[in-house]
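hey can u check if this looks right to u? its 153 residues, i copy pasted from the old doc so theres a chance i mangled smth
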Amino acid sequence: MISYNLGYHQERNTEGQYTYVLQPNIGEIISFPNLPQHKQLSYGAKQLIQREIELEKMRKIENSLQQMAIDTEKKSSTKGKQVKKTDKLQPIAVKHEKTKPMLDFFGREIVRPKDTGQKKEKKSSLINTQVWYKFNEGYSNAVKRTVKIKDFL
């Protein structure tokens, strides 16, 4: 489609719905009145095809620009002229500020108890289990039923 400069163009029909129409419309040329109609692509498929066509055109333009830049660098280096190299950006050191203590609603400092190692034991025991369950939020129309954990084990 790219080599023939074909693509889909979004148009609004009289009913107010948007459709993708092939531009140039070669369907008028190749359709015969006595033959049955072929299946049309869906709106989403046409949208996806048009997006990929545009991306490929941009890739080709970018590649040609890069090739032109490489060619000009080769020509300038063969003439004996040196191309100025631009300075590279250097990262700026970030100053770490002292951490502010956590405050509650009334402005009092929140004091947390120190770790006693029990959390690490609990985490390691959870990791070593055979059954994992991950809950994903969302909506599903699937058939649901109550299942107890001991049924899995």
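The longest strand covers residues 7-12.
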